[in-house]
């Protein structure tokens, strides 16, 4: 994801991986709605959507009074109406493939994942860190190139079935081993000088260790196994996402996947951590895992002929003490938060860390944005990680607990509580409830430190005096991702989800809700706003290159003309290509795809309109009026807090 | 398209092209709804849909009483509700790319377009033609391999802008030249022995000439130019499909395209054919064409900085006397029908020719289908070509004619007639009104010869005694493509357009509308039908391999169980992969994508149900009851008329 941002922003970057290949099976698989929206903004959600299994419904199976499991409930897998995507499942190898293709395309073949390469030293010039000028490289990293053999971990027991134990938290990290082995050879190192570095190097993060930062939290005694199989079974809901609580044999989760595969998460109640706190992984095999599953799912039968991958892990929740070092070295993903995989959060939240950070680094490297925006990474994402860990702590205990026999059974888990947690959890797990706190990037009232993870953002004080007018757009929430409804291109009547026009190209968007442009008062407001926009000494140089302008009006499409009814700044003219026909949209009925009713759904008045600023990651930074103090002046002040003057 | 079918059917095939490269710009661009449905069945409609410009609305511009053009009407570009696709525009080069990728994938890299190769002799062993047994190759073709230089035609005037004049009907054919040039060299030929051959070699078809078949019809005096430009204009509807009739300067059509391009079809009223009947193409340049456009579109301005491609053509309609020679050599596309390009029919109807033919050849080569089905190619497609020529004849004259000044102006074209023709023409042009006549493949009453192009299909007489019961599915029409509505997979609740399950894999579909399976009478009917299906000595060997079975039931999804409520033959068990979860669907509401209401939309009763047979190209071959004479017996008789016993 970081490399994709660098490619989309045109930044010179390198990416190294100590492993010699991409993932070919197993590992993560669930893609949440927000991740698909992000993929779409990068240009490849359609590939994932087409290949993946789509999860639609969750079935809950619990013991009846006779102790035999039965289906007790069905709920939609994700809340209805939140996004144009739903949750899908596809193995991580394909997702890596989409990223690799996307990076290649957008970097014009200049950024490649360099495999079997790992860092062995990091030096930081403390005095250079504070100076973000162009020719300043505070970081010096020594990279070591491994042979393929060195970089390929052995599989358990010499089996031909791939397993993921070498990446599991039941395994020791092999980074130091790899570095030591590599050092026995000559001439296989190089020195890289860098402005910024991001460690996306997993739970055992070498980068985190160099910085001396910690993961805080505790493991539990719960051990789970994972099997990717083509199941042969008479269990009726094997193609649904299922949560199965047996009376006394533990729990099981069914995740139906692509190509007839099903992933089973199976509680291994017979395996316990030893006195060191870690379970003996030699006792865990596909056979022990499927036998545990058979006990849970009885009286239904469950076997398989084909196993694609398997692993096991010990549940625990930990979060990093720090996500950045002096705005120069950053940590993302498992390097700063680890938890159980069952809520499908690991890959998603990790990608979203990098999605939050990439454009900020991109704009600072280009000299467009003030370096202080980099502080919002920890403030925004460490808070998300803390929320995630709290969610997973609660969720995984409900999942691993024994079902309560009745209301008096206090050590058991109430199945009503479990269902309730699932329903609430679905919104959190979708990634769409993320709400970033006040900063120079989010013109929201309140205390930035309290709304974030406690990080001091005092440098953004001047922006916080901004009066954002959220009541002008009651369904557009500052700090949350811009919701999406269908609008039509004024020039060709084609329907688009507005979000499709918020591509991840590193640009902010100034979205002008022009309202009913045939009302004289509204037209006058629009013209006055556009005159200020076109004349702005500060913002004008950033327009289009770093701030794209989108207009959504609410007059009838067929009574409206692009060239007659909208100031030029909203659809600029080019000598080579004529007028811009791709920036003005209308909230009107389509011939073939219904009516988005965007003004109603966004809560924007057609006789007032408003302006909205979205960040390059689609989160809402500012909402203002077309006129008055919170209008043009607000937009101007927002960007003065972000861009270099 | 033929090569794609061969790849999808696993047939050993070769494809040669006398040109040295694929198309990179210009040529055809419009993709009709039916073509997109076909692309989807092959697996790449999504790529075209994503890259293309979508045409949504047609604007009509006509002279007012003052003689100045103004917008007189807007109509939707395609009829609403007919298909899940609409008309899009994308240049032929991209479409060729999608085909090349698809052929490579499905042929496992064994079929490639062999470029700069052309046939120079064709020998047909007359006595072998009638014997379709496996080791019989009646055709002998000598192929000549050209150098790149030989195969690349010169561009006009040494310009760097690509033009298509060398492919236009204003140019002479160069095939004989190429063959003669190639003969001067040694060792560049090879002999191919073939069972079947299809000439998709254009209006000057070498194959057609070898067979001695003719194109019948006449050219007109109307000459049109084509420009692919990025327009610089104040014409308000430049991103709409427009038909512009000027008072006395001729007509112009606007086709907005991808990447800011617009294609303009421009009537060249000042250029006339000479006494030979052909216009002097040296007089036609991008400058003369844009100047003609400027006269038509005045008082609006129209210029360009970038021209991607241009060409010119003379309007005429011709159709081939024969489409096949002894069921061994076939002609498709421009080789058997030529007409004006403005209705966007050329590429679409030509691809649909091959789409009609490919699976038939595939099944005959495999020894699955009776060779007599090959006769339906000419019967079905020559009739379509005749209808197309009639349509184009009328449409192009309305387009090229001068607008009538008033109702008394009898030599002018009434703009009301023109709009009416456009509305009716849109259904024809969508490709969705094609209605194949009675044959062994379409169990329809009536005279096969009269419903087709006159071809004798008497070998299908035994099938014509079939009593198809169209009243059981009032919106499913014998001979037309199966309509599509959304249904849910019973096993995982995922919504699918039913058409998405009719992939082009060479298989017929037996679609069982099981109705309300909880009604005892309905369940009994279903069970009886399935028992006959499972026990059939004739059809059982073809089941699944050549006839996929899809079930759509109408009980509540959540009250229905796949393994309990449906006979095994509808979801067969495999020792390796368990039960089939991908064949039983339900007409019920979805969580996220509305309600397809398929039974209502198909006109099928929930307390009767029915069975429908679709051909491998999605056309409806048979409709019958679940019980009675037109039930199982009808299905059995249909397939006895098609498959080898």
UniProtKB/TrEMBL annotation, chains A, B:
InterPro entries: FAD-bd, FAD/NAD-bd_sf, Phe_hydrox_C_dim_dom, PHOX_C_sf, RIFMO-like, Thioredoxin-like_sf. It holds the Pfam family Phe_hydrox_dim. Residues 1-391 form the FAD-binding domain. It comes from the Eukaryota. Keywords: FAD, Flavoprotein, Monooxygenase, Oxidoreductase. CDD domains: PHOX_C (cd02979). Residues 434-643 form the Phenol hydroxylase-like C-terminal dimerisation domain. GO terms for molecular function: FAD binding; oxidoreductase activity, acting on paired donors, with incorporation or reduction of molecular oxygen, NAD(P)H as one donor, and incorporation of one atom of oxygen. SUPFAM superfamilies: FAD-linked reductases, C-terminal domain, FAD/NAD(P)-binding domain, Thioredoxin-like. PANTHER family: 2-MONOOXYGENASE, PUTATIVE (AFU_ORTHOLOGUE AFUA_1G13660)-RELATED, TRK SYSTEM POTASSIUM UPTAKE PROTEIN. Belongs to the PheA/TfdB FAD monooxygenase family. This is Phenol 2-monooxygenase. The lineage of its organism: Eukaryota, Fungi, Dikarya, Ascomycota, Pezizomycotina.
């Amino acid at each position: 994801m970081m490399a994709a941002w660098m490619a989309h922003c045109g930044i010179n970057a390198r990416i190294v991986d100590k492993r010699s290949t991409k993932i070919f099976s197993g590992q993560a698989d669930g893609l949440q709605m927000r991740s698909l929206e992000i993929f779409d903004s990068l240009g490849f959600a359609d590939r994932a959507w087409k290949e993946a299994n789509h999860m639609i419904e969750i079935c809950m199976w619990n013991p009846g009074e006779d102790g035999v499991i039965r289906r007790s409930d069905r709920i939609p897998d994700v809340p209805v109406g939140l996004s144009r995507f739903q949750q899908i499942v596809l193995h991580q190898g394909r997702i890596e493939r989409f990223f690799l293709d996307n990076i290649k395309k957008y970097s014009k073949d200049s950024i490649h994942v360099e495999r079997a390469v790992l860092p062995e030293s990091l030096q930081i010039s403390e005095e250079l860190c504070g100076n973000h000028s162009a020719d300043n490289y505070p970081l010096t990293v020594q990279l070591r190139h491994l042979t393929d053999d060195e970089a390929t971990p052995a599989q358990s027991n010499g089996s031909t079935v791939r397993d993921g134990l070498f990446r599991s938290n039941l395994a020791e990290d092999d980074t130091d081993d790899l570095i030591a082995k590599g050092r026995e050879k000559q001439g296989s190192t190089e020195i890289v000088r860098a402005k910024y570095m991001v460690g996306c190097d997993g739970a055992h993060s070498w980068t985190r260790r160099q910085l001396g930062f910690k993961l805080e939290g505790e493991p539990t005694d719960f051990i789970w196994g994972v099997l990717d199989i083509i199941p042969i079974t008479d269990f009726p809901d094997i193609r649904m996402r299922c949560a199965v609580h047996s009376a006394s044999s533990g729990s099981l989760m069914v995740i139906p996947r692509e190509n007839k595969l099903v992933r089973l998460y199976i509680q291994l109640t017979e395996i316990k951590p030893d006195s060191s706190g870690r379970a003996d992984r030699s006792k865990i095999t596909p056979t022990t895992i499927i036998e545990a599953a058979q006990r849970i799912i009885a009286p239904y039968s469950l076997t398989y002929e084909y196993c694609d991958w398997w692993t096991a892990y010990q549940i625990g929740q930990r979060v990093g003490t720090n996500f950045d070092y002096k705005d120069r070295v950053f940590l993302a993903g498992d390097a700063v938060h680890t938890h159980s995989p069952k809520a499908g959060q690991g890959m998603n939240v990790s990608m979203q860390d990098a999605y939050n950070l990439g454009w900020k680094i991109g704009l600072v490297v280009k000299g467009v944005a003030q370096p202080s925006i980099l502080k919002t990474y920890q403030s925004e994402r460490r808070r998300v990680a803390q929320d995630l860990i709290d969610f997973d702590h609660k969720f995984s205990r409900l999942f691993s607990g024994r079902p309560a026999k009745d209301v008096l059974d206090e050590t058991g888990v109430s199945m009503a509580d479990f269902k309730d947690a699932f329903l609430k959890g679905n919104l959190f797990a979708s990634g769409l409830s993320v709400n970033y706190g006040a900063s120079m990037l989010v013109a929201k009232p309140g205390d930035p430190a309290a709304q974030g993870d406690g990080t001091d953002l005092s440098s953004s004080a001047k922006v916080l005096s901004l009066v954002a007018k959220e009541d002008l757009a009651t369904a557009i929430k500052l700090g949350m991702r811009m919701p999406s409804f269908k609008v039509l291109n004024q020039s060709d009547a084609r329907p688009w989800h507005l979000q499709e026009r918020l591509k991840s190209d590193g640009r902010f968007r100034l979205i002008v809700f022009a309202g009913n442009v045939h009302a004289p008062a509204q037209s006058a407001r629009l013209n006055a706003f556009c005159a200020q926009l076109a004349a702005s000494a500060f913002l004008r140089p950033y327009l289009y290159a770093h701030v794209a302008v989108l207009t959504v009006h609410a007059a009838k499409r067929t009574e409206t003309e692009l060239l007659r009814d909208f100031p030029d700044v909203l659809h600029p003219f080019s000598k080579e290509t004529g007028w811009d026909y791709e920036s003005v949209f209308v909230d009107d009925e389509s011939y073939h795809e219904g009516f988005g009713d965007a003004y109603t759904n966004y809560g924007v008045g057609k006789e007032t309109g408003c302006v909205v600023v979205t960040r390059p990651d689609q989160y809402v930074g500012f909402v203002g009026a077309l006129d008055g103090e919170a209008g043009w002046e607000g937009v101007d002040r927002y960007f003065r807090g972000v861009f270099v003057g």
